[in-house]
Design brief:
596 residues; 76% helix; 0% strand
Length: 596
């Protein structure tokens, strides 16, 4: 069978590797006998003579078995590679190099126990065999034996204090196990051993990022770049050290510097685009992705990113055209489908959004998020059974995510099933106790279920977590006003909400209602008239409250007008309907009679 050029080159590489590395002392002697040169005595240094003088026929078989092992490894068949390596060692049992290769194969295969035994046998024959110590360290790491790995790396450094890779391995071991001080000491030692090397500085930068010391990380990454400006991870680390400080403009400048030296670097340009998105510069992000598309115009992922940015810019028609273009070329593209569904949802084209999101494959990573959006849409359509069905499926697939019971709680709240709503919000809070929005909705459900003490506690906890949560100030203040309790604190709370959102019509209504409950009718009337002005839409509650203030002032016709408007907006308010009828009867009785 004819070999392809790739196979011939691979075989040549394999043979070359054997000849260059010189793994088999016995095989080397075979080559001598075939006219390949003479093995010097120096080549045998450190090995007992009996380990070098081998039977030529045995050595040749070991050599060929080793070649077969390397070839199998290149083909990805590790079982076959191990089999041939064991065969080679059977013909040349004294070769430490063969043992090292077998241990490396077993390590690569994940057979750590067997690799460990091979390493121990090598070290029994040659205690100072550095490669065996490195293999043992890697094997211990595979077995999660941190102390064993640490000991082996330290032994390599003792044997060869200038062995830089051992410092890197040991430092990374400490970093992975979060032994940060030991990691710092190790990489600082490496910096002393290799003052011109970049890896020690880069690794120190990674540690300082973990320790939330971005200024030190910044200095370390810059030092790595100064020593090797071709090392891309150092540029990324330097930009990240600015990003975690919220210094997005500085992060963008880092990537711009990097791109000036390497204009074709796609990773830098993508990260620059992401920085622009984080700083809210959609135009710059769009320009960066368009630049990427020039180099790779057929890349659908980049095209989808452009569509997502256009959607953020509220250019919905252009965005949807791009998503549909991507889906036409690649119907299974989950990212484009999800983005199209969200855009349709934003436009309140709910039926179309449901149709798009429903086609997202269950194995797609966005599937559960699509379920959550579908549930939200069903809730907006007041199709509560369908909403609960998809939320329940999301809860099954993602049981540890607080958003799922939270959205179920919102759905029960919309259905006015307050006990079940409370239950779901409590689950959400248990999963994420520091989430103020979960606690806020729990407070709302408790208030509507008349558990006022618990509701108050929930709102006060929200304000501990987020002192700028305007809705919590308002809800708690309005609850006090509605109940006629703690009215002075009620006014203070609502005023705090209005400091955060001065033109919020609902908050102004709460303040007017608190004044009304305190009997400060003129102030109440003034605030309630402002609430009508600043409400985003005509609101039944605001109109009812305004009617109450007019009624208290004896302005019954104005009160009747406001209550009529309130009932036009919410015909379900039976108590107000009765109050309106009473008011009409009073005005009818009080009207002057005409003398016949």
């Amino acid at each position: 069978m004819r070999q392809t050029m790739r196979q011939m080159m691979a075989m040549a590489w394999a043979v070359g590797a054997v000849l260059t590395i010189g793994l088999l002392p016995g095989c080397a002697e075979v080559m001598v006998q075939q006219g390949g040169g003479r093995v010097s005595e120096a080549g045998r240094a450190g090995l007992p003579a009996s380990l070098v003088r081998m039977d030529r026929r045995v050595d040749q078989r070991a050599y060929h078995a080793y070649i077969r092992s390397v070839w199998a490894e290149l083909q990805g068949d590790l079982d076959e590679a191990v089999r041939w390596e064991r065969e080679a060692r059977r013909y040349d049992p004294s070769s430490l190099q063969l043992r090292s290769h077998l241990a490396a194969l077993l390590l690569k295969k994940g057979d750590y126990r067997a690799a460990l035994l091979e390493g121990e046998e090598i070290l029994a024959l040659e205690p100072n065999h550095i490669q065996a110590h490195l293999l043992m360290a890697a094997t211990y790491q595979g077995l999660r034996n941190v102390r064993g790995a640490e000991k082996e790396y330290q032994e390599v450094i003792r044997l060869d204090p200038r062995r830089t890779d051992a410092y890197v391995f040991l430092g990374n071991l400490y970093l992975e196990t979060r032994n940060f001080q030991e990691a710092i000491q190790t990489f600082e030692a490496l910096a002393t051993v290799d003052p011109n090397g970049h890896l020690a500085r880069y690794s120190l930068g990674r540690i300082y990022l973990e320790l939330k010391e971005p200024a030190k990380a910044q200095d370390s990454f810059q030092a790595a770049i100064d020593r090797n400006d071709d090392f891309d991870p150092a540029w990324v680390g330097l930009a990240t050290s600015f990003e975690v400080q919220g210094r997005y403009e500085d992060a963008a400048r880092v990537y711009e510097r990097a791109l000036a030296a390497d204009p074709q670097n796609r990773e830098f340009r993508e990260r620059l685009a992401q920085v622009h998105l984080r700083r809210g510069d959609l135009d710059a992000a769009l320009a960066a992705y368009e630049e990427l598309r020039k180099a790779d115009p057929s890349n659908l992922m980049l095209l989808t990113r452009v569509g997502q940015i256009l959607a953020e810019k509220k250019q919905f028609d252009r965005a949807m055209a791009i998503f549909q273009q991507v889906l036409q070329k690649e119907p299974a593209n989950g990212e484009a489908r999800f983005a199209l569904g969200l855009t349709l949802e934003e436009l309140k084209r709910y039926d179309e959004a449901l149709e798009v999101l429903d086609k997202l494959a269950p194995q797609d990573g966005r599937y559960v998020d699509a379920l959550l959006h579908r549930g939200y849409i069903y809730g907006q359509q007041e199709k509560f059974d369908q909403a609960m069905a998809v939320f329940s499926e999301a809860a099954r697939l993602r049981p540890r995510e607080g958003n799922v019971p939270y959205l179920l709680g919102v759905t029960y709240l919309q259905k006015k099933d307050y006990p079940l709503s409370i239950l779901q919000f409590e689950k959400a809070v248990a999963l994420d106790p520091a989430n103020p929005q979960f606690l806020y909705q729990l407070g709302a459900a408790l208030e509507r279920n008349r558990q006022l003490d618990r509701a108050e506690a929930a709102f006060r906890k929200v304000l501990e977590l987020d002192p700028k949560h305007a809705d919590a100030y308002n809800y708690l203040g309005y609850m006090f006003a509605e109940e006629g309790i703690k009215l002075e604190e009620s006014i203070a709370l609502v005023k705090k909400a209005l400091e955060l959102e001065p033109e919020n019509g609902a908050f102004i209504d709460s303040l007017g209602w608190a004044y009304f409950r305190l009997g400060r009718i003129d102030e109440a009337l003034a605030e309630l008239l402002r609430a009508v002005k600043f409400s985003r839409r005509d609101d039944a509650t605001v109109r009812e409250h305004l009617g109450e203030a007019y009624s208290k002032k004896g302005m019954l016709q104005e009160a009747i007008r406001e209550w009529e408007r309130s009932l036009e907006l919410d015909a379900s308010n039976d108590a107000l309907r009765k109050k309106l009828e009473d008011a009409r009867q009073r005005t009818s009785r009080d009207a002057p009679r005409t003398i016949q």
